[in-house]
Design goal:
7 helices
Length: about 130
């Protein structure tokens, strides 16, 4: 899953003038499903301020959407840009479960539990084996 980079943005990058806003716009436009998943996790966090994190845990409807999500969260640059844009720290399990943590919650009990090997194992299921 590649990003669709408009010529002006590519030219800005070649000149060393690419800014976060331009890059985030490319991500949003190129990976709309991934963007919507991250935005939903952030919205869930905002809607439930007493919860330790917000999340999106609905499996993608197709392999194309799954690819978008994997591309966004596996790329250091994309993931970091999304975190800066939304003001959260993202965590990821399986092919679909995305959590949005407040930056100050990173390293806390809920974050450690979500990102632990135990948390990963407990979040497995046979129907998601190939995701």
């Amino acid at each position: 899953m590649s990003l669709d980079v408009p010529t002006p943005v590519l030219e800005a990058a070649e000149r060393g003038e690419l800014d976060d806003a331009q890059f985030v716009a490319v991500v949003r436009d190129s990976l709309p499903y991934a963007w919507s998943v991250v935005a939903a996790a952030v919205e869930d966090r905002l809607d439930h301020p007493d919860a330790p994190f917000g999340q999106h845990a609905v499996p993608p409807p197709s392999e194309q959407e799954r690819g978008q999500l994997l591309r966004a969260l596996a790329s250091d640059a994309i993931r970091a840009a999304l975190e800066r844009h939304f003001g959260v720290r993202l965590a990821f399990q399986n092919c679909h479960r995305v959590a949005a943590f407040a930056p100050e919650a990173v390293g806390g009990p809920a974050h450690r539990a979500f990102t632990s090997p135990r948390g990963q194992v407990l979040n497995q299921s046979p129907e998601l084996r190939d995701c």
